[in-house]
Design goal:
The protein contains eight helices and 16 strands. It has two domains: 6-134, Nucleoside Triphosphate Pyrophosphohydrolase, CATH 3.90.79.10; 152-335, 3-Layer(aba) Sandwich (Rossmann fold), CATH 3.40.50.150. By secondary structure, it is of the alpha/beta class.
Length: 337
């Protein structure tokens, strides 16, 4: 009778930074010089997420956030059967320092096969490649959303510039310190940035549309930065980030990445305000991509967002006279680390 192989259960971290993932090269054993995603065994009493956080601290000295589940691969090596659960991860604090591996590299998502991967990890690569085709579709949708604002900047400003947002701004400012530094992220016309400036606050503003940046700069006198959400690279400088009807244009994977960037840009105890259309739609609507939320779907999604805790949500009616039937879900979240 054939001897049954030993089964080993492990977890692997697919650590992502923009359009690249982190790969490590083994420096020992039968598969010396082959490449793999870092991780290790799940110890008794640990969840997969807890095991990944521990393993990456032990192997690479960094603190990571464990995000969405990616895949589980089953592979028969000559000596054992491997069951490997893989999760998207991101680095929270610290630098990735090699303590056990021979080498490491940040590899582009569209060129992962440039190194020699362990056989089980090849199956993970195949899954990532499938998802990348979906990422390209999402990128196309983002480009479409930006084109919409470039083509409709004037009409968009006309329909939003005079909307009274005072109540929402006051609710946001009530949880910030006096003289707060604020980032208006996705500032559109510059309406809210101007209002914050008039209250004596230190304001930065940014938007993905070049034309809206020009319009907002003319209104506010600020040098409005043209950048996409994932390009936010500030660290610990904002008391508050105002994302009013802006990050709602991201798909959920993009939104998860953007929120990690936002958390990093906030000071400890800094606060995010964000708003989303109320509902369950995810996709293109009227030329733009939207991710809508209800209370339940927002709570479920936010479980993967590290160290940025929602402490208040509320529903409002659209303030535009011709949109009274539309509702919005608003949130305040605080950076807790």
């Amino acid at each position: 009778m054939e001897k049954r192989k030993k089964s080993i259960r492990v977890v692997a971290a697919v650590i992502r930074k923009g359009d690249k993932v982190f790969a490590t090269q083994r420096g020992y054993g039968n598969y010396k010089d082959w490449w793999e995603f870092p991780g290790g065994k799940v110890e008794e009493g640990e969840t997969p997420g807890q095991a990944l956080v521990r393993e990456i601290r032990e192997e690479l000295t960094a603190d990571i956030s464990v995000g969405e589940y990616l895949t589980t691969v089953e592979y028969d090596y000559p000596e054992f059967h491997l069951s490997m659960a893989c999760y998207w991860c991101s680095v929270n604090d610290g630098h990735l320092v090699l303590l056990e591996h021979e080498a490491a590299a940040w590899l582009p998502l569209n060129d992962l096969r440039q190194v020699k991967w362990l056989p089980a990890d090849v199956l993970v690569i195949e899954e990532i490649e499938k998802l990348c085709s979906g990422d390209q579709a999402a990128a196309d949708k983002t480009a479409g959303t930006l084109r919409y604002y470039e083509d409709h900047a004037d009409s968009f400003i006309d329909s939003t510039i005079d909307v009274n947002m005072e109540e929402l701004r006051s609710r946001f400012l009530s949880v910030l310190p006096a003289g707060a530094r604020i980032l208006d992220l996705g500032c559109g016309s510059g309406r809210d940035a101007k209002a914050f400036l008039e209250q004596g606050l230190w304001v930065d503003a940014a938007d993905g549309s070049k034309k809206l940046c020009e319009k907002a700069s003319a209104l506010t006198g600020l040098p409005v930065k043209n950048m996409l959400f994932h390009e936010l690279d500030a660290e610990g400088i904002y008391d508050g980030i105002w994302a009013c009807a802006s990050i709602l244009h991201l798909s959920k994977p993009e939104l998860s990445e953007a929120l990690t960037k936002i958390r990093t840009a906030l000071k400890p105890n800094g606060v995010l305000y964000a708003s989303f259309k109320y509902g369950t739609h995810e996709g293109v609507r009227n030329g733009r991509y939207f991710t809508d939320f209800t209370e339940e779907t927002l709570q479920e999604f936010w479980k993967i967002i590290p160290h940025l805790e929602i402490f208040e949500t509320w529903i409002t009616q659209d303030m535009r006279p011709d949109r009274k039937e539309e509702r919005w879900i608003n949130l305040l979240a605080r950076r807790v680390r």
